[in-house]
Amino acid sequence: MPTPLKLTALDADDLGVISAAVQDSLVAVRDCVHFKDERRFVLLLNRFCWEADPTVEAAHWRTHSALVFNEVKAVRHHDVPLDEPDRVLDLLSITQENDHSVTLRFAAGRAIRLEIGRLACHLGDVGEPWATPWKPAHPVDVD
User: Fold this and answer.
1) Opening angle at CA 98, ends 92 and 102, nearest 5
2) In this structure, are residues 64 and 47 in contact, taking their beta carbons and an 8 Å threshold?
3) Which residues contact residue 30 at a Cβ distance below 8 angstroms, ignoring those fewer than 6 apart?
4) Which of 56, 63, 73, 79 is CA-nearest to residue 116?
5) N or C, which terminus of the chain has less Cβ within 10 Å?
6) What are 55-99's pLDDT values in tens digits?
7) Buried (b) or exposed (e) across 113-136, using 16+ Cβ within 10 A?
8) Contact, 7 vs 68, CB < 8 A?
9) 106: in domain
């Protein structure tokens, strides 16, 4: 069983580590919330544990995680079905575009862009992980 993660990102390199940890996380539209008064954006994730030891019997694990961005000034959505709160999005990556924006990219060309005062991001696993027989896979482009 994987050890719970607790990570903080204060620069683009740190954010790259968090991005790798949350790749292929599942998140319902309803669980992506901007708390404007607190300048905070929170996602509640069903995270695939890429860091789990693949040599153990139950090699694949998922866990619930909270991904929090502080100092958020504005949130922009691209093709995110806000009128479908039960729609589940597949998080592919998180990148810092410049000193004042972060983009969360999802499958199917969806994205959320956060306008930030500074990068202050935290990832924390919550609850107990559970075994899963499914490992995310992505098609490989062959030229």
Assistant:
1) 35
2) yes
3) 85, 86
4) 73
5) C
6) 776 678 999 999 999 999 999 999 999 999 999 999 999 999 898
7) bbebeebbbbbebeeebeeeeeee
8) no
9) yes
Number of domains in the chain: 1
Residue 1 lies in a domain: no
pTM of the model: 0.91
Residue 3's SS3 state is coil
Q: Rounded to whole angstroms, how far apart are CA atoms 98 and 76? A: 15
Inside any domain, residue 137: no
What is the H or E stretch that residue 12 is in? Answer: helix 12-22
Which amino acid, 124? G
Domain extent at residue 23: 6-128
Q: Is residue 121 part of a domain?
A: yes
Is 102 exposed, middle or buried, given 0-12, 13-18 or 19+ CB atoms closer than 10 A?
buried
